[in-house]
Each structure stands twice: as structure tokens, then as C-alpha cells.
Amino acid sequence: MDIPEIDIPAAQSLLEAGEATFVDIRDLGSFQAGHVPGAAHLDDTSIGSFIESADMQAELVVYCYHGNMSLTATAYLIEQGFRRISSMAGGFEAWQQAGGASATESG
Predict the structure, then answer these.
(1) Which of 83, 105, 86 is nearest to 22 (CA)?
(2) What is the mean pLDDT of residues 77-101?
(3) Is the pTM of this model over 0.90?
């Protein structure tokens, strides 16, 4: 399966335009310390409810630490029926290095 990837500038454009949902698959502590603004945090306990309630036709950008694990997660979500989905190349590390906005949350 060819997993679609999106580069950081394209992902930033989608965020600024409000045209995509971002999904963070890193651990909760990393998510709380900093994430793409508005991103949903997904883990083994929340992915089922996310899939049930998500719009399968909406644009979705999946990211992790460095862009490796998000490829696997993107493939899984494609198998679940998502069509407009991509893995963010370089992950949150590349996002931060490119000066991307970051939000934090307390647990």
C-alpha cells in the first residue's frame, strides 16, 4: 500500500485554512507538552470512538514524533475507510523545526 504523505508547508497551509483535522498519535505526555493546535490525541483506548464518530470524507493529517509511526496509523485508518488522509512527513519534530504553531494542555 502506498501511504500518502504531506510535507510540513502543505500541512501548515491546511491548518491555517482550517481545512483538515490533525491527529496526534504520540504518547499523552508528549501531546500535553505540545501539539498542533486543535489536534485530536488518539491512542489504543480512543481510536475506536474516533473512527465511529469521524467524517470519513474529511481531510485528515496524522502525525507522530518523526513521521514513521504515523505511516502505520495512516495505513490502518485507510483500511477503516478514510479517504482524504495523509501522514505528516517528519512528524511533530519537523513541524517544530519549521516554526509550526504549538498548543499545550494540562492533564
Answers:
(1) 86
(2) 96
(3) yes
